[in-house]
Amino acid sequence: MNLVLPFRPEIAHLTIGYMPLLDSAPLLWAAHRGYFRAAGLDVELVGEVSWASLRDRLAYGALDAAQCLAPMPVAATLGADHVGVPMVTGLCLSRGGSAITLSRTIADRLGMTTGMSATESATAVARYVRGGACLRLAHVFPFSMHHYLLREWLSRGGLDVTGSDSGSIEFLVAPPPQMVRLLESGAVDGFCVGEPWNTAAVKGGLGFVVTPTSAIWDGGADKVLGVTREWAQQFPNTHRALLAAVMAALDELEGRDVTSELTMLLHHAKVLAVPEAWIEAVLRGQGTGIPPRFASGLHAFPRRSQLMWCALQMLHCRQWNGPVSLSSLTAAVCDVSAYCDAAGVLGFPQPAVDSVREGAGLVALGADGAAIESRFIDGSELDPADPAAYLAARGWHPEAAHSAVAG
Q1: Mean pLDDT in residue range 357-379
Q2: Which of 27, 94, 237, 386 is geometrically suited to a Cys-Cys bond with 23, CB 3.0 to 4.6 A?
Q3: Looking at domain 98-218, does it have CATH number 3.20.20.300?
């Protein structure tokens, strides 16, 4: 793809952060294929050691942009992360690609078998902890899809991890590359993380993959491209050029088989400290986890309703105790105009709406009537026009739910 863009970047040199995961591929591919350069950008990609470090370096200006966990810009803008530097996103990078893995010992004790549904495995865990056992489960960051989907999975077994069952489940936070070591040492009994770390746990004889997170929410964003609000306002053309370059990379990653070339890129750049054969196997869907689905086309559009779901999780998990104006919050976080401008110059599909009924299955999003998939494991839905109903369905008193989202 030849990029001919009308944007004239206000600044050319950018430092962009990423985490050592397979779904950092869109950023590395954009550099590898020359899309950043074609957009008038001189990009330095920097691997980060943890999501907390990445968040801090982005918030305080050491990074211009970064691969972010989808809830991170929401938490930052809300102020729930205690840093409180507002962030925006104009692009989803990946969907799914994470999984829940238990230690081999625990999985055997619970009678876990390949082919179990997410609800069946969660029910087995519930029986285990209600028999008096406790579990230590790790995820990558307090404000992450991994954290929220891990809780959603446990709730499918009937566990109330925010209430009566909170003492039976201990949640820990750890950087993705440390998950396997923590499992091996016995410091955790399981984790939710992106690939290739689930595959690494299985290949090492340490873990059993219980369920992919896509079986809990099929269609939810996992990673997004984030910048601070101040940066986006100061450098609007640079932001659009950046989005267009990464969109081009996403389109190519999904549009043709580049697995061998991408495997070599990830391995030779020393992004992932695992054997090259493992990387290729996961990318081809032959690993034990689930490969990331790069968010091309309309899936790359950062729907406000997706980020509304993230904010509702923050309320439900008691990460935020005040009222929230979800409409104002998601409008501030989603840079819809930047996405549409970048997609427009590439001739990519445009959204007709900025929110959909999440969980409803096939939902119309495109200006041409094209639909995307969004399905929750429990059959529930999030109506962006009535978010209080989502909380009420999770045990909140209706008046408390309305008060929480009426700010």
Answers
A1: 94
A2: 94
A3: no
